[in-house]
Design brief:
By secondary structure, the chain is mostly helical. It has helices at 30-60, 68-79, 88-115, 124-151, 162-173, 182-207, 220-250, 261-272, 281-305. The chain is globular, with a radius of gyration of 24 Å.
């Protein structure tokens, strides 16, 4: 009887599983979301800044209703192609800083509401984006004020750059002047972000079975479709408030008295009719259609690269 030779036997022991480096919403560092959102916002706002400048001119025009293409031609002929980039310094600063605040608050609050089952999961993105939008506006309102004035026709406000604008507004109109139209801007910002991100998450959920993707990959088809639908709905619903905000921000409070919101709304209706509230709507839908496709695509791409589990978000 031969003796068993154990020398050639290899004792198989369970191999430790390689750690899953992907982050789920429960253990992710939410600054990851904030950084991804800030980069996405900067890319998006820079790309669509010329559209924003054109639609700002349209909304500011209380004398006539001008189409988007007509306004674009006027600016090119009268001021040249660089006129489309007026106020870009504000965009660089505002997009970088304010989006950090927004995406951090949005993703953290959305995860908290869902994980603790405090509200219907479909409502969580609407609530979280509204709150995040309000936090974002604390930073963004002065940025938007200076940028709007810089985008107007030359001669009205000669700000060299964002910080020069902040300095001059603070000097001549007081610190309060930086938050001109604050209540309307807060309302616009909160509602717009709530509708945009809320509908985006909702459309992603509804359309996901019809637009499949490979595991672990960004579903760009789903992202683009959901982003476009959300952008269009949000832009149409909030355009009247957007017109109101632009008109309020135009007023130099060092020279003219502030106008109350009801008074200004009545003046727009009296002088321009219902269509006055929808000036610039073509530009707004175009702006946010392009902007949100860029924003959401870049954001989903960066989340994937940063190791955030897209199935759980």
């Amino acid at each position: 009887m031969q003796k068993n030779d154990l020398s050639d036997l290899t004792i198989m022991s369970p191999q430790p599983e390689s750690p899953d480096l992907r982050q789920s919403p429960e253990n992710v560092n939410y600054m990851t979301y904030a950084i991804a959102g800030s980069i996405s916002g900067l890319v998006m706002e820079t790309a669509v800044h010329p559209i924003d400048t054109i639609r700002t001119r349209i909304k500011a025009n209380s004398k006539e209703f001008v189409t988007f293409t007509t306004q674009a031609k006027r600016m090119f002929i009268k001021e040249g192609p660089f006129s489309y980039w007026r106020g870009i310094s504000c965009t660089f600063f505002g997009a970088s800083v304010s989006n950090i605040a927004y995406f951090y608050m949005y993703e953290r609050l959305k995860g908290f509401l869902k994980n603790n089952q405090l509200v219907n999961p479909d409502l969580a993105p609407f609530i979280a984006s509204f709150v995040g939008g309000c936090f974002q506006d604390m930073i963004y309102i002065p940025v938007d004020l200076v940028r709007t004035r810089m985008q107007l026709e030359p001669g009205q406000y000669e700000y060299k750059h964002f910080f020069d604008g902040v300095k001059k507004v603070s000097k001549y109109e007081g610190f309060r002047g930086l938050y001109l139209g604050g209540s309307a801007v807060f309302t616009l910002g909160g509602l717009h972000t709530s509708f945009t991100f809320g509908f985006y998450e909702l459309f992603k959920k509804v359309l996901k079975p019809y637009i499949p993707s490979q595991d672990g990959q960004v579903n760009y088809g789903l992202t683009l479709t959901s982003g476009l639908l959300a952008a269009g709905i949000s832009a149409m619903l909030t355009n009247p408030i957007d017109v109101l905000v632009t008109r309020m921000q135009m007023v130099n409070t060092a020279k003219h008295k502030r106008e109350r919101i009801p008074t200004l709304l009545g003046k727009i209706y009296k002088n321009e009719g219902i269509k006055g509230y929808f000036k610039g709507i073509t530009g707004r839908i175009s702006y946010y259609g392009i902007a949100d496709v860029i924003l959401f695509s870049t954001y989903e791409f960066l989340k994937n690269k940063f190791g955030i589990d897209l199935h759980e978000v």
